[in-house]
Amino acid sequence: MYSFDFERPTTVADAVAALSKEEAQALGGGQTLIPTLKQRLASPSVLVSLSAIEEIKGVCNDGGVLNIGGGTCHADVAAAAASDFPALAKLAGNIGDPAVRSRGTIGGSLANNDPSACYPSAALGTGATIVTNTREIAADDYFQGMFTTALEEGEIITAVKMPIPEKAAYIKFEQPASRFSLVGVFVTKGADGVRVAVTGASEDGVFRWTEAEVALNGNFDASALDGLSVSGDGMISDLHGSGDYRAHLVAVLTKRAVTEANG
């Protein structure tokens, strides 16, 4: 590690002011940033902790839309969503281990946009709206590639608005050590149709499998996906699995997610 200043504001306005300082970096739960600092892959001069800002914490059902504060930890999302949105509760309750779930936040995960993180698939799969201190961004416009989002410098995620679908399920094939998604698929069926969001597979990060969406809009059953597949080109290939293997998992897990969503 190295020396840096540390600030812990209690309001969004104070956090925005602190982040306007040169080389300042927002700190959510720290589950990604702190290891990055230890490896000297980042060197901010000021760390601005968002953990004391109560106004960006909490979960409520606002007329069929789950409004989740950006500073809400995974464990609290899992507990609060259990009755209204079980698929999201399952996703949040299976991130990392208890220590990670008690510290990591939904806003931090979405801001970092790790290509294997779980929350991006939920946001994209529900057609969520990412709320910041300055604007609202549709999930389809928010995710822009691996570790890349529409967030501007100093912008803070204050809330995530997720429409609660009629049916939903999240299935992931996880890396045993990290519990990140080797491949994860979030499927929803709602008033606006079917959405299929895939994480952990593509070099471009989370994406929608539109061909599957078209098939499932006609028949929301796993059999509608028979014969459909995604190409291994552009998929992540590493020691955990090849691009072709991940492409195969996309098709398999999507079928399982549809089956689970149908109960």
TrEMBL record:
<keyword id="KW-0285">Flavoprotein</keyword>
<dbReference type="InterPro" id="IPR051312">
    <property type="entry name" value="Diverse_Substr_Oxidored"/>
</dbReference>
<dbReference type="InterPro" id="IPR002346">
    <property type="entry name" value="Mopterin_DH_FAD-bd"/>
</dbReference>
<dbReference type="InterPro" id="IPR036318">
    <property type="entry name" value="FAD-bd_PCMH-like_sf"/>
</dbReference>
<dbReference type="GO" id="GO:0071949">
    <property type="term" value="F:FAD binding"/>
</dbReference>
<keyword id="KW-0560">Oxidoreductase</keyword>
<dbReference type="InterPro" id="IPR005107">
    <property type="entry name" value="CO_DH_flav_C"/>
</dbReference>
<dbReference type="GO" id="GO:0016491">
    <property type="term" value="F:oxidoreductase activity"/>
</dbReference>
<dbReference type="InterPro" id="IPR016169">
    <property type="entry name" value="FAD-bd_PCMH_sub2"/>
</dbReference>
<feature type="domain" description="FAD-binding PCMH-type">
    <location>
        <begin position="1"/>
        <end position="167"/>
    </location>
</feature>
<dbReference type="Pfam" id="PF00941">
    <property type="entry name" value="FAD_binding_5"/>
</dbReference>
<dbReference type="InterPro" id="IPR016167">
    <property type="entry name" value="FAD-bd_PCMH_sub1"/>
</dbReference>
<keyword id="KW-0274">FAD</keyword>
<protein>
    <submittedName>
        <fullName>Carbon monoxide dehydrogenase medium chain</fullName>
        <ecNumber>1.2.99.2</ecNumber>
    </submittedName>
</protein>
<dbReference type="InterPro" id="IPR036683">
    <property type="entry name" value="CO_DH_flav_C_dom_sf"/>
</dbReference>
<dbReference type="InterPro" id="IPR016166">
    <property type="entry name" value="FAD-bd_PCMH"/>
</dbReference>
